[in-house]
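Design job #97: recover the sequence.
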């Protein structure tokens, strides 16, 4: 295919990704993944910041990981510095799906502490998936500063990320149980229970932790079942 021919196809892809029905955009992204071409990477990534539909965004990521992993990684990394939160979040999500350890250095403390909950949640998940073993404890220290943050979805994401770090997160969870606000301590206790019994739903663990903190009324040193 000539360069001109590729250019025409890419422009058609861009226009199709702007179609009004979300179902049409979804099908377009899927088609780009089923027939990958290096030239499709740019228009797929360009949609990160502006695509309003969650399922279409997820399909954009699926399509991208069907492409050359190195090229996709190189194109996605700049999105982590985008001024648009949705672009940062989708870039991080794609990074976690790529599973390429070369993406780890791009997950900065700034992203882990991002003011936008959706960005921070996605950064936590990506970091837990990509962190080298020798940096897991340092990551846990940063994540522990976020105990008590946000709504149930945000707290659940943080607990799952810490649980994924395994033994590296144990010291920060222990400290979190004894220090900070009531909300933060309850979150740490719920995280501990989730680590010990992954089958327990987070909402159940958090509700039980909140009751325990309220009953004790002091920094927790005991087990959730006390």
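Job complete. Output follows.
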């Amino acid at each position: 295919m000539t360069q001109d021919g590729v250019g025409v196809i890419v422009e058609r892809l861009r226009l199709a990704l702007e179609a009004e029905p979300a179902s049409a955009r979804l099908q377009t992204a899927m088609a780009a993944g089923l027939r990958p071409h290096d030239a499709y990477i740019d228009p797929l990534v360009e949609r990160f910041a502006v695509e309003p539909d969650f399922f279409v965004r997820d399909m954009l990521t699926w399509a991208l990981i069907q492409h050359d992993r190195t090229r996709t990684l190189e194109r996605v990394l700049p999105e982590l510095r985008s001024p648009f939160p949705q672009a940062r979040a989708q870039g991080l999500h794609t990074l976690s799906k790529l599973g390429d350890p070369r993406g780890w250095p791009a997950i900065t403390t700034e992203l882990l502490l991002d003011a936008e909950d959706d960005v921070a949640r996605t950064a936590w998940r990506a970091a837990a998936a990509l962190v080298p073993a020798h940096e897991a404890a340092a990551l846990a220290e940063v994540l522990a500063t976020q105990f008590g943050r946000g709504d149930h979805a945000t707290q659940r994401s943080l607990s799952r990320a810490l649980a994924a770090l395994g033994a590296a997160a144990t010291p920060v969870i222990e400290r979190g149980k004894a220090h900070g606000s009531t909300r933060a301590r309850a979150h740490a206790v719920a995280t501990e229970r989730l680590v010990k019994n992954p089958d327990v739903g987070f909402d159940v663990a958090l509700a039980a932790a909140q009751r325990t903190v309220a009953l004790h009324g002091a920094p927790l040193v005991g087990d959730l079942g006390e």
